[in-house]
Amino acid sequence: MENTHNFILPPKNLIGSGAIKDLPNELLSWKLSKVLIVTDKNMISLGYVENVEKILKSLFISYDIFDGILHPNPTVSFVEDGLTYLNKGLNVFKRNYNLIISIGGGTNHDCAKAIATVATNGGSIIDYEGYNKITKLGIPQIAINTTAGSGAELTMYSIIVDESRKVKMVISSPFLTPFISVNDPIFMTTMPKEVTASSGIDVVSHAIEAYVSTEASPITDSLALEALKLVFEYLPRSYDNGNDLEAREKMMFANIMAGMAFNNAGLGYVHCMAHQLGGFYEQSHGDYNAVLLPYVFEFNSVSIPEQRILKLCEALGTITHNTSQAVGLIIDSVDKLRSKLEIPSKLSAMGLKESDIETLSQNALKDICFFTNPRQGLLEDIISLYKAAF
Ligand SMILES: [Fe+2]
């Protein structure tokens, strides 16, 4: 029986309070001539970009800053603006950028991955939608993460909205994996409450979807279960007090572990449905996941082995030998956490229009996260799930 599992991660991951201090050592060996920083104006005003500028200046590395990521939904326009900026830089200085440093949350990392890819592969980022369409390495990327989180700083995914089709594209290739990820909780203390909530519950959906995925392995299982234990204990604390460094640090680890799990096990219907909502409306990605997760979990539960449901329930704090009780407890725990984080309970409160459900469902069937869901449904099933969460 063929049953193989590749395990993909950045070659280097700097982790923990003060991890950013290790970055100069890493850069020393690169013989860099020019760096492009990809970020947004908020990261500049928080002083995070200046931290990196100081490091580059101390090593006499020249750099430019593209800060044209204007809102938290990554779009083809931002990627194209970044490429225009990058090409203008080439014309003026006649030197190639040989490193991209993204600073921020998932949106900035995903846009930077797309810019780095198109810069060397050519065409448009739309050409690479789907799995393994990229044929060459992009410009190497270092991703300095400020949320906990999308996991984007260490994954082989780039999620970009094609505004012309209103589709949130999933682009997946090992070539998208950043060369170095940096997760330093000091960069996470300024996350606003709603970002802490939305990105934190995204970690729950990553861990649960990776755990129940058809591509799960004992490695991704242990990462996913440990991530869940941490989120349920420390997300309420970091939501209540953003300066609670211990809680921020534990959430940072939860983000890394869930990111490692889903990067290698894949995701499921929660994400393929949330991606489509992100193509149509403006609510944060994690908020859509928070609402969809209980409905999708209940739908999937008949296809998840009983022992695995019981283990998942145990990770959330309750030991039971009754599977249907465990399903109820898991759904309840997710729902209570969503409510604690003040995220609405229905998609209608997040902009969903009933008349869009059919199109959203058809688009969800084409999302690559569809294929690793434990229960394969039909168009009508996806429509019913959107309607139940409406
Ligand atoms: Fe996500």
Automatic annotation (TrEMBL):
Entry-linked InterPro entries: ADH_Fe/GldA, ADH_Fe_C, ADH_Fe_CS, Alcohol_dehydrogenase_Fe
Pfam families registered for this protein in UniProt: ADH_Fe_C, Fe-ADH
A molecular function (GO) term: metal ion binding
Domain of life: Bacteria
Domain Fe-containing alcohol dehydrogenase-like C-terminal: from-to ranges: 196-390
Coiled coil: none
Family per similarity comment: Belongs to the iron-containing alcohol dehydrogenase family.
Stated name of the protein: Alcohol dehydrogenase
Source species: Desulfosporosinus lacus DSM 15449
